[in-house]
């Protein structure tokens, strides 16, 4: 799919993007190339292909889940305008 300069201008207008007139042709080429790549990728048969979280099949290093701070809820609630049963009370904003 090849985009025209008029289509790029319309897309830029809808997206509220300001594009200089001399850059419109370049954007049209780049966006057309991206759309062509997506069309080619859409034609590939991906049946039986399992989705991957990372292209390099790496394992994420995780740290131990250890509490590093003490609970300060009571300290913070002492300065709150309204508290009830450990919860902050706020004015109703939606009817």
Descriptive report:
With 95 residues, the chain is mostly helical. It has a domain at 5-42. The protein is built from three helices and two strands. A two-stranded antiparallel sheet has the order 1-2. Strand 1 and strand 2 (87-88) form a beta hairpin. Helix 1 crosses helix 2 (24-42). The longest helix has 19 residues, at 24-42. The two termini are 48 Å apart. The model has no long low-confidence stretch (mean pLDDT 91).
DSSP E strands, number: 2
Low-confidence stretches: none
Count of helical regions = 3
Shape: flat
Strand-pairing-aware structural class: mainly alpha
**Adjacency order of strands in the biggest sheet:** 1-2
Strand count, sense and closure of the main sheet? 2 strands, antiparallel
Gyration radius (Cα, Å) is 27 Å
SSE arrangement, N to C: HHHEE
On the 0 to 100 scale, the average pLDDT is 91
Q: Quote the beta fraction.
A: under 5%
What distance lies between the first and last C-alpha atoms, to the nearest angstrom? Answer: 48 Å
Helix content: 25-40%
Notable features of this structure?
95 residues; two-stranded antiparallel ribbon; mainly alpha; 36% helix; 3 helices; 4% strand; single chain
Write the layout of secondary structure elements.
Layout: H1 5-14, H2 24-42, H3 73-77, E1 83-84, E2 87-88
Antiparallel strand pairs: 1-2
Helix pairs in contact: 1-2
């Amino acid at each position: 799919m090849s985009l025209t300069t008029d289509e790029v201008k319309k897309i830029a207008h809808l997206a509220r993007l300001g594009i200089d007139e001399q850059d419109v042709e370049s954007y049209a080429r780049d966006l057309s190339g991206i759309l062509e790549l997506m069309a080619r990728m859409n034609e590939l048969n991906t049946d039986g292909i399992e989705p991957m979280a990372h292209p390099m099949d790496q394992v994420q290093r995780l740290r131990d889940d250890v509490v590093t701070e003490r609970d300060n809820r009571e300290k913070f609630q002492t300065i709150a305008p309204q508290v009830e049963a450990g919860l902050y009370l706020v004015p109703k904003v939606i009817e």
